[in-house]
Amino acid sequence: MPDLPELDPVVHGKLRLAVLSLLVGVEEAEFTWLRQKTGSTDGNLGAQMMKLEEAGYVAMEKRFAGRKPQTLYRMTPAGRKALAKYVAALKSILGAAL
Amino acid sequence: MIDFEQDNGTTRDELVQRLALMEQMIAEGRKSTARFGWIFVMWGIIYFVAMGWVVLLPFKQWAWPVCVTVGILAGIVRVRRMRAAGIGENQRTRSIGAVWQAMCVAIILYVIALGVSGHGDQPAYYAAVLFFVGLAHATSAGILRWRAQGLVAFIWWGCGAALFFFKTQNEVIAIFLAAAFFGMILFGLYAMWLERKRAKALVQHHA
Fold first, then answer.
1. 53-72 in A: which are within 8 Å (CB) of B?
2. What residue of B is the nearest CA neighbor of A15?
3. Which residue among A67, B92, B135, B143 has its CA within the 20 to 30 Å range from the CA of B52?
4. CA–CA separation, B178 vs B152, rounded Å?
5. Is residue A70 part of a domain?
6. Do B18 and A17 touch (CB under 8 A)?
7. Does the residue B18 lie in any domain?
8. B3/B27 Cα distance (integer angstroms)
């Protein structure tokens, strides 16, 4: 097995990877949409989103749509770069393993 | 459903699963028109109802204004409910939404003008509606790079052009209903089937 450090541990988490992959195709997404698409729980998703925020990979914004509060996430340039790097590393590892 | 318990797997199979997960989620995030297959079915039915009203019921000048208004209101209610459930938005979904909204505004103004002025029985006027719808389908197909929807655009344009060569009321109705059936109802059902197929594949993939 190739060295693990090549894979960014923040991106490698399954739920975090799922969220980043969802966000890469949209400009911004609501928390509820991410929860619905990943089938995760509020608590788990909230914790993983916090890790992504701390890493600077996503940015969070709270706003109101009418009277309804919304929590919106968007991917940062650092997040895009990290995901691209992760994909390249993953393909390289898998290529080497074949 | 994604299994989030085994979070740091590094075996080859697990890494392959990561790639598959990414592909699945990226596709899921980019999905747009297929999620709105029901709109096409609804509008196809509305066209049938409006045409039925024109042929069979009194006050036929109000058939199109009333049916189109009901359709737009039903669409707004449904889309608001979907938004309340939470959606992801991007430039592509906004572009497609703008195309269809503009088409709706154009058609509603057009049919109101037709109804009020009493010109609703001219085949050429119906043809314009078909060209409007075809234009929206073609633009949407171009944004999504979806050949099936491109084909649907040609069905609408073809039927629109055909209206200029058939003059009797029965011929006009037959062409219009053919466009509504193949270009709206059948296409909408196909889009809904695609949506369900993708959702099913997503669940099976993560089971």
1. 65, 68
2. B4
3. B135
4. 12
5. yes
6. yes
7. no
8. 19
* Min Cα–Cα distance to chain A from B42, Å: 25
pLDDT in tens, B64-105: 788 888 988 888 887 777 666 555 566 677 788 889 889 888
Please give the residue range of the domain that contains residue A66: 7-88
Nearest chain A residue to B16 by CA: give it.
Answer: A94
Give the number of domains in chain A. Answer: 1
Q: Has residue B64 been placed in a domain?
A: yes
Give me the residue from B11, B26, B84 closest to A21, CB to CB: B26
> What range does the domain containing B125 cover?
35-206
Q: What is the CATH number of the domain that holds A19?
A: 1.10.10.10
Query: Highest mean pLDDT range out of A24-28, B24-28, B72-76, B149-153?
Result: B149-153
Residue A6: strand, helix, or coil: helix
Cross-chain CB nearest to A14 (options B4, B23, B29): B4
- More confidently predicted of A38 and A2: A38
Instruction: Please list every residue in chain A whose beta carbon sits closer than 8 Å to the beta carbon of residue B24.
Output: 21
pLDDT value for A57: 95
Residue B206 confidence (pLDDT)? 43
ipTM: 0.82
DSSP A51-91: HHHHTTSEEEEEEEETTEEEEEEEE-HHHHHHHHHHHHHHH
Higher pLDDT, B205 or B69: B69
